[in-house]
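$ run holo --ligand "manganese (II) ion" --emit tokens
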Amino acid sequence: MKNEILNKIKEYETIIIHRHIRPDGDCIGSQKALKEALILNFPNKKVYAVGDEIPDYLKEYGAIDEVDEHLYINALVIVLDTASKSRICNNNYEKAKFLIKIDHHDDSEDYANINYVDHESPACASILVRLFKEWNFKLNKEIATCLYLSITTDTGRFRYRGVNEEVLTNAGYLLNYGVDTDMLYTRLYIKKIEALKLQGYVFQHFKKTKNGVAYIYFTKELMDKFNVTKEDAANLVNCLDSIEGCLIWVAFIDQANSTQNIPSEIRVRLRSRFVAINEIATHYHGGGHLMAAGATIYSKKEMQKLLKELDNLLKKYKEDNPCVF
Ligand SMILES: [Mn+2]
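-- output --
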């Protein structure tokens, strides 16, 4: 399959790379790395990166190009890090002459002409490094930095269980290109004062269900009061990640721009340790990884229902596994 992908890349003059909605480090870095690697190794090809606005903390590692619809007719489209069709950012991918998907999600669907999915890889970017090595691609510091960023963000800084020999070997391989890790981590960890103050609020005010699902609801009013964006608030989900007994934690983020009391859409970010929560996410227009998933709900009532489901899941898990943190 790796050769089939390379042959398609060689065959097409125009290559357009898509990623998922609500971009994270893995899809942003992978997309730019693939774009730059294709340009470096095939200077005559036209290569584009498509997607919505890039969050501030990832701006340095991302690319967005305006691509006219008519270019798709003779183009190869490669979709990165995107499990399902509904999560592909920008529907123009449907117009592609040929579609390739490269992904690593547990709930990945085959929607392309070639589907290269490796569930064992903890980051899409690590699959790209594998391919680049196999194809003897030239790389450079910029490409290596984007790939390193992707791998470190999707593995929780090389912490999650999915980390394996290949990932660490690939990360080491990238460092040889001169990745400035100090700068990279500074960009990841630096915080706006407003977000830090909201984090203090979260520590004071998060709630907990009977069996230990920790959660916080970022209403529009709250985000306005602390003067943070929805993205800033969403990024605070992991500040609930180390509470004893709380093996599942959730952030709810109002998406409505209106000032009405009834939110039209609430984004849900679900995280856990040891307990798989992605199945429940699929009940609420979502999905993702076993212990990091997203969903969307449309009312407070649905919020209570989701919390109840998670609470039951955690209750069961604790009964089966009495020795948990
Ligand atoms: Mn990923």
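-- notes --
The chain has a mean pLDDT of 94.
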